Amino acid sequence: MLPMLLPKDSGARLLAEDKLMSQAVAKSMNVPLYLSGNGLFLPDAAVVQANLIAGHKAAREAMKAARPDLPVGVSLAMNDDQAVGAASMRDSIRARLYDPWLEAARADDFIGVQNYWRAVWDASHRLPAPPGVVTDENGSELYAPSLANAARYAHSKCGVPVVVTEHGCNVLDDAKRAKFIPAALAELRKAMDEGLPVRGYTHWSLIDNYEWFFGYKPRYGLHSLDRTTFARTPKPSAAVLGDIARRNSL
Known about the structure:
Layout: H1 2-5, H2 10-29, H3 45-66, E1 73-77, E2 80-83, H4 90-97, H5 99-104, E3 110-115, E4 118-121, H6 146-158, E5 162-167, H7 174-193, E6 198-201, E7 223-225, E8 232-234, H8 236-247
Parallel strand pairs: 1-3, 2-4, 3-5, 5-6
Antiparallel strand pairs: 7-8
């Protein structure tokens, strides 16, 4: 399921590469199976998910026993999933990927939402971005309401406050990011005015960084980074978000 959520054809390619890596490591370690900490290749994803949720519940109980006042939650990477047609697979995607976690989060203090894209589903697959829209380097639409919609869905299922733990865009043209940030936050503000309890927002990311599976090619940063000197150079989008943060207002 996870490769289907990634833009364009990158999901299938990355899954194949991750599977080869896992098999090679297992062979070198003389073990039947090796799974990386943040991998796409999961031979039995349902079992892995069940174990992770059980681990989250156990960790929550342990933390609350030691610090009852400590807010505990879990963060989910979520698309703004939208349906096209009565037979759309949107609801089955949500039921398999998000809903077990959102059910577990009902006993948490908050739900973390990581959002970058919307995903439009027909009966068999994710549709490409509509012609003529502004896109990121993955070919996905820069859709301003995506964050607010994902947060709405998460809260509707678990009923606890939302903390935006990741949000941003992979673009070489920083002017796109400078426009996208206030547009997306304006949509989130609308949702808050409607009653959505949002407790915080974290932009991804401060600097252009090493991204899982993709290396240093993506450009999510508010600053560029010289990896030799570690000098950081602010992009115009950093000033846009900084101004919003200083004013605490759009």
